[in-house]
Amino acid sequence: MGYQETSYKDKKVISIGVVSELTGLSERQIRYYEERGLIFPERSDRGNRKYSFSDVESLMEIANKIEDGVQTFEIRQEIKRGNKKEDQRSIRKKMLKGQLNAQFGIQQNE
């Protein structure tokens, strides 16, 4: 069990054309959001952008915020704060797990 199971929502398998159809955003808008650091697609061996379902959801949220007048800078700051909170939650969870394992004498093989 040495690999991390990725949720289907986080697998980067969707092309920019399909993302454009799903979101109603132009490919140019999607690339702009990437340039602004709001979305992070992976690249195929041929250099094509690949997005996940989670990315599609994020793009929809970004588009809604921009429609409401929120600036891309503000959205990027919000994303950074969200990532920081998620990192902190992850660290707390690992610490708690370690404490419980130590309390009950459970050995973890990683």
Automatic annotation (TrEMBL):
List the molecular function annotations (GO) for this entry.
Answer: DNA binding; DNA-binding transcription factor activity
Q: Name the domain of life this protein comes from.
A: Bacteria
Provide the protein name.
MerR family transcriptional regulator
Key word DNA-binding present: yes
Which CDD domains did the record assign?
HTH_GlnR-like
- Key words, A-Z: DNA-binding, Repressor, Transcription, Transcription regulation
Q: Which InterPro entries match?
A: DNA-bd_dom_put_sf, MerR-type_HTH_dom, MerR_fam
UniProt cross-references to PROSITE patterns, sorted A to Z: HTH_MERR_1, HTH_MERR_2
The residue ranges of the HTH merR-type domain are 13-81
A single Pfam family it belongs to is: MerR_1
